[in-house]
Design goal:
By secondary structure, the chain is mostly helical. It folds into 2 domains: 202 residues, no CATH class; 58 residues. The radius of gyration is 19 Å and the shape is globular.
Length: 266
């Protein structure tokens, strides 16, 4: 029987709380919006009380200023936990976990596809934003239309927001549908292939204070493969306990006594 994990239950509640109620037609703009959460969220989400670090990063790049605060924020989170927030806080990641339960079909991605998120980070959220001075990743973000775009249009009673719906809205909706379909077939498709925040945190996995370890002496040559089977990122943790794709969800730890998590300064 799967061990009772209060932390995971709390994390699920936190993740679900980010999704907007479609009957709220306002966008919170209070003081806390000045602060970021360590995951992909949307400034326009009716229930969001904090800002998106990717939105903040693009804001400063568009102004052609060095984003000291955002870079420091990413660095602090990365040094402390690496990609762990992707598993325990991110609502869009949680949605992908739910979508994958719809079918038993399991398609595996070629290794090279995991590098496309770095192209999204550098190209779409970096170079293009610098040239156009517009936050293009935000304008195309599937999490944004799910958490803010669609709910705000549905909640619009005056018609003012619906009048703004155009090609960009439908392009964004098409990207969302694309991500949903592939997330049903492939474990955490968006996280592994497209998420720029995941790309940033992945660089820190090897150096973060929180680290995964595997007792390879007990694992032996005849590896059972249970770690990859339960892993939402489809990795073999015994090959590299702190691989860049690992989100420290601890699914493997609860299935295999050879896997552990701890704090390391090395």
């Amino acid at each position: 029987m799967r061990p009772f994990r209060l932390g995971q239950i709390i994390a699920s509640i936190v993740q679900l709380s980010y999704y907007p109620a479609i009957w709220t037609g306002f966008i919170y703009q209070g003081f806390t919006k000045r602060f970021c959460v360590p995951i992909l969220t949307c400034w326009g989400c009716p229930l969001s009380r904090f800002g998106c670090p990717m939105g903040g990063l693009q804001h400063f790049i568009g102004l052609r200023q060095i984003p000291y605060y955002i870079l420091g924020f990413f660095g602090l989170v990365g040094i402390l936990v690496g990609r762990m927030s992707c598993a325990w806080v991110c609502p869009f990641g949680f949605l992908q976990d739910l979508l994958k339960k719809i079918t038993r079909i399991k398609l595996r991605l070629p290794q090279w596809t995991t590098y496309t998120k770095y192209a999204v980070l550098i190209g779409v959220a970096g170079i293009i934003v610098y040239i156009t001075r517009a936050p293009w990743f935000c304008q195309l973000c599937p999490a944004g239309i799910l958490e803010a775009g669609i709910p705000l249009v549905l909640a619009d009673k005056t018609g003012d927001i619906k009048a703004l719906v155009g090609w960009l809205f439908w392009t964004k909706a098409a990207i969302l549908v694309f991500v949903i379909v592939f997330s049903i077939l492939i474990k955490r498709f968006f996280c592994r292939v497209l998420c720029p925040i995941g790309a940033i945190y992945s660089v820190f996995n090897r150096f973060s204070l929180v680290k995964m370890t595997v007792d390879t002496t007990k694992c032996g040559e005849n590896k059972c493969g249970i770690c990859r089977k339960v892993c939402p990122m489809d990795i073999n943790i015994h090959d590299n306990p702190n691989a860049k794709e690992c989100i420290r969800c601890l699914e493997c730890k609860h299935k295999c006594p050879k896997v552990a998590v701890g704090i390391s300064l090395k």
